[in-house]
Amino acid sequence: MKMKTAMKNNKGFTLIELIVVTLILGVLAAVAVPRYMGSVSNAEAAAEAGTVAAMRTAVENYAMQKFLDEGRWSYPPNPFNYIEVSGYNPDATSLETLGKGEWMILWNGNHGHIYHKRRDDNVYEWTYRAYDMTDLDGDDRGSNVGLAPENPGQGHGNEGVLNGRRYVGLSGDSIDQQDGF
Fold first, then answer.
1. Which member of 2, 60, 67, 125 has the lowest number of beta carbons within 10 Å of its beta carbon?
2. Domain containing 163: what range?
3. Widest distance between CA atoms in the chain
4. Is 85 within a domain?
5. Is residue 91 part of a domain?
């Protein structure tokens, strides 16, 4: 009689049932996690594209205002001074010190390079040149963020224009992605 009582009070899951549930959860996680990470990366790329577009617009608005005020088109020395960019770090001096989600501009003489470090530690790069790259009177514009000059002068074509290129110097990857969008 004691044996029948022990069998009736046996409540719980069998080992097989626990293993099956664990396998199902593992399969779901294996499918869901990469999709989630891809969605996060796509959202960050879209926000990055919006920021670059806003910078381009701010630079063109500056040039238009300079033309209206002074009769000459020109670009600002630093596009970040004319638009509020979340994560812009004016004190960043190298890519190694750039934090996740931060933006910076580095100058190599007259050539500016705008960098953004995504949360996955990949760094993307755009060119920017504020100096006169045209041969036209009244047009002292350079090349807008990630774009070639509009009216390139002698020796100022599309060379060296980077538009959202993944910077591979920090990652060590040999694959050079040409467009971050």
1. 2
2. 16-167
3. 108
4. yes
5. yes
- Indicate the DSSP class of residue 147: S
pTM of the model: 0.72
The count of domains in the chain is 1
- 18: confidence class by pLDDT, cuts 50, 70, 90: very high
Residue with tokens 């040149």: 129
User: How many Å apart are CA 151 and CA 136, to the nearest integer?
Assistant: 8
Burial 156-176 (b: 16+ CB within 10 A, else e): beeeebbbbbbbeeeeeeeee
Is residue 5 domain-resident? no
Residue appearing with tokens 């996680």:
29
Residue 110 in domain: yes
Q: Which tens digits make up the pLDDT trace of 137-161? A: 777 777 778 777 776 666 655 566 7
The size of the chain, in residues, is 181
